[in-house]
Specification:
Structural class: alpha+beta
Helix content: 40-55%
Number of strands: 8
Strand content: 25-35%
Largest sheet: 4 strands, antiparallel
């Protein structure tokens, strides 16, 4: 009678390899989704922080504008002129002549109180802040009375009439008119505009640069011709920008 093997060798148990592979694929996909979600969340936080902390050029320019308007008037240039005028009068067959030398100081000013948000425009494409100033004004002349000199004599006519007083008054009026004529000459007006322009440019550019903004400032006067070629105006004034933010 044949003997039966009571201790058969264990047979290897086959594992379901397909289920393990599917589990690992699902786990990997879940991890990828977690990483993407984390990256999206980090990007959103960075955008939020950047929007809150990055300086806004229109806000900075608006603050600079208000600071300038509080100054009321800006005088960035002054010049001293000397007028030499002569007046003559004849009366009773006699003549009289007097010459006046009149020095005076003239200041060139801008009324900053006339500046408004419409006069300041920001071009984000070119990173350019444009400022339009009111026309330059002349204050004076402030005549240096102690330095006035008069020459000439009316002779007999000055003793029998008031010709000296009339000649002096005429010379004073002509002297002040001559000082203003010199002050309005093209060369001093250009110097005054350039000095005022540089002062306003610094007033706007320094706060922008202090905030880390790479921006240029262009200042021009309302009565100056536009030297730039004609183009579509794509800039926006501070009034338009800040009005939309309200």
């Amino acid at each position: 009678m044949a003997q039966q093997d009571l201790n058969p060798l264990p047979q290897s148990v086959a594992r379901p390899r397909g289920s393990v592979t599917a589990f690992l694929a699902k786990a990997a996909g879940f991890l990828v989704l977690l990483v993407l979600a984390g990256l999206l969340a980090l990007w959103g936080v960075q955008r939020y922080v950047a929007s809150r902390l990055s300086p806004d050029p229109t806000t900075i320019a608006s603050a600079s504008l208000e600071g300038l308007r509080e100054q009321n008037r800006l005088s960035a240039f002054a010049a001293r002129y000397v007028a030499v005028v002569t007046s003559r009068q004849s009366q009773l067959g006699l003549s009289s002549e007097r010459t006046l030398i009149m020095p005076g100081m003239v200041r060139y000013e801008v009324d900053l109180g006339k500046l408004s948000q419409r006069d300041v425009r920001w071009d984000a494409t070119r990173k350019l802040l444009s400022v339009r100033l009111p026309s330059l004004e002349i204050d004076g002349p402030q005549v240096d009375l102690a330095a006035i000199r008069e020459y000439g004599s009316g002779g007999l006519l000055s003793h029998i009439t008031d010709v000296d007083q009339r000649l002096e008054a005429a010379n004073r009026r002509a002297g002040q008119a001559e000082l203003l004529r010199q002050a309005r000459d093209a060369t001093p007006m250009k110097l005054a505009r350039d000095a005022t322009r540089h002062a306003i440019e610094r007033s706007f550019a320094m706060p922008l640069r202090a905030a880390g903004l790479d921006a240029n400032v262009d200042v021009h006067f309302a009565d100056e011709p536009d030297a730039t070629p004609e183009r579509w105006d794509t800039t926006r004034s501070l009034e338009e920008v800040l009005g939309n933010q309200r």
